[in-house]
Each structure stands twice: as structure tokens, then as C-alpha cells.
Amino acid sequence: MKLEARIFLWIALFCFVVAGVYGWWTQHDSGQLEWAGTAALVLSGGLLGLGGSFFWFVSRRIDARPEDRNDADIAEGAGELGFFSPGSYWPFGIALSAAVTGLGLALVQYWLAGIGVVLVLSSVGGLLFEYYVGNRAPLR
């Protein structure tokens, strides 16, 4: 996770430096600070810094992964990465629900956006509890 932490923190630093240069440049060029771009760059750097610091703290608590070591072989990263559902239709339902929500917001139809939010929450719940109900439930 140290690799991810470094990537996030370096990009956060870049955003902060660019925000300073951008703010100085707009102030110097037009005599007035352009707040939208400066705020967007500062907030982007803050969000990247938040993620990078999370990865940094997590990397201190876990053992070094092969990605974090310079002397690691490619074969050390082989193996099972986790469980991924092979035949789940719930991700498609989540995407369709998010599309309905986005369409409702884009057309300023709040009733449609509300229906979309309910559909998103329902489909996320279906994905979350997919292996706890129905035919895929564990035997007791």
C-alpha cells in the first residue's frame, strides 16, 4: 500500500502547487483571483491527501506486499485475490438505477431522481445480501 500512498500524496502535492501557481497567475494577469479553479485544485489536493494518508496508515499496519518491495518477483503476487461473483446481475441493476437517478437529476425531475435513489439502494442491498438469501444461502 505504500506505492498507492506515494502516488496519491505526490498527486496531492502537485495539485496544491498548481493551485498556488494558478491563483498567483490569475491574480497577476487579471488583477482578480479566480476562485473556482483555485478552490477546485485545493479541494482535489485535499481529497487526494485524504486517500493517500489512509493508504499510508494502512501500509504501516500490514506486512509489505510484493508491490511494495523492490526485490520481489512477479510470481510472489500470484494467488487468489478474493471472491468475485461469477454470475451476478446486480452490478447491471446498480448501473441502470444510477442511470435513472442521473437522468432524473439532468432533467430536473426530482420524482424520477427519488425513484432512482430508491432503486440504487435496493440494488446495492441485493448485491450485498446476494449470498445470504435464496439458492445461494449457506446451509445451516
State the helicity in percent bands. Answer: 55-70%
Span between termini: 38 Å
- Secondary structural class: mainly alpha
- Name the beta content range: under 5%
Radius of gyration: 22 Å
Structural shape: flat
Count every beta strand, where a strand is a DSSP E run of 2 or more residues. 0
State the domain count. Answer: 2
How many helices? The count is: 4
Task: Return the average pLDDT rounded to an integer.
Answer: 91
Order of helices and strands: HHHH
- Largest β-sheet summary: none
Unreliable runs: none
Secondary structure layout:
Layout: H1 2-30, H2 35-61, H3 90-106, H4 110-128
Helix pairs in contact: 1-2, 3-4
What is the compact description of this entry?
With 140 residues, the protein is an all-alpha fold. 66% of the residues lie in helices and 0% in strands. It folds into two domains: 72 residues; 47 residues.
